[in-house]
Amino acid sequence: MPSREDTAAIPGAGSVDPKDHPPIALPDADWAWFTERCAALALPDPSAWRPRLEALFGHLSGVNRWLNLTTVEGPHEWLKLHVLDSLTALSDPRLGHLAEGAPCLDLGSGGGYPGLPLALARPQVPWVLADARRKKADFLAAAATLVGPHVRGLHLRGAEVARAAPDLFKKCQLVVNRAMGQADEVLAEVAPLLRLHGHLLLWKGPAFEGQERDRAAAAAPKLGFKVLGVRRLHLVEGDPERLLACYERI
Q1: Cβ atoms of 104 and 174 closer than 8 Å
Q2: Predicted confidence (pLDDT) at residue 4 exceeds the cutoff of 70
Q3: If both were cysteines, with which of 53, 67, 93, 178 could 203 make a disulfide (CB 3.0 to 4.6 Å apart)?
Q4: Are 173 and 128 within 8 A, CB to CB?
Q5: Structural domain boundaries of the chain?
Q6: Beta-carbon contacts of residue 89 (< 8 Å; ≥ 6 apart)
Q7: 220-250 pLDDT, tens digit each
């Protein structure tokens, strides 16, 4: 993070308004690589999303100069580690049959991932991007406007949902979470949010296979969840394995 003195010299510092952080064009070579990887992973063709992804990249890059949202820099790494990584959820069959009207929630969304790319890909359902930190929630609310009216940002902790967001209390059909904390703690945070037979999808690295997975499996039935399993994939051959752990509210 820049110091207080340095921040004053940054254009758009203190503002999350997309007008102050215009789109940044994605290089053709990086875009070609991204579309090829989407095809290789059996993900939707992202061609129609390019203008909005460029708007999201410009907005994130501009705000990130004064608000710590991500350590990822450059269009190629952003497309890979934020956008492509988020979209891998679409290969899960539960995301192929989302019901219209029932909300989907990205809890602890931070810089907006995986929620923003998933909201681009599934515009038929309402998406909420929630974060417990006010400045990041304000950023998410602004970023949501670049995707569509079906997306909104919210300042929220899962434990506060019954009071602060009654429209989400036991109403969500899907909650997604990437890098918010230990899986058993996330299960407890998400329990008041999911409706019966709703799903929680967690993005995890290889270290999940061990004590964290065992603790989550032990906590799940006590919190009203069933473990559905873990899917494994590689964003690029040779990269560390990515894990998507799925739980169902029962």
Answers
A1: yes
A2: no
A3: 178
A4: no
A5: 98-249
A6: 95, 114, 118, 176, 201, 244
A7: 999 999 999 999 999 998 899 999 999 999 9
> Count of residues for the chain?
250
Q: What does the pLDDT read at residue 158?
A: 66
Could you give the C-alpha distances from 208 to 17, 211, 232, in angstroms and in order?
37, 7, 11
pLDDT at 2 over 60: no
Q: Is 156 exposed, middle or buried (0-12, 13-18, 19+ CB in 10 A)?
A: buried
Note the pLDDT tens digit of each residue in 12-63: 778 999 999 999 999 999 999 999 999 999 999 999 999 999 999 999 999 9
CA-angle at 65, arms to 64 and 67, nearest 5°: 55
Per the CB < 8 A criterion, the answer to whether 113 and 203 are in contact is no
Q: Which amino acid is at 84?
A: L
Tell me which fold the domain 98-249 belongs to.
Rossmann fold (3.40.50)
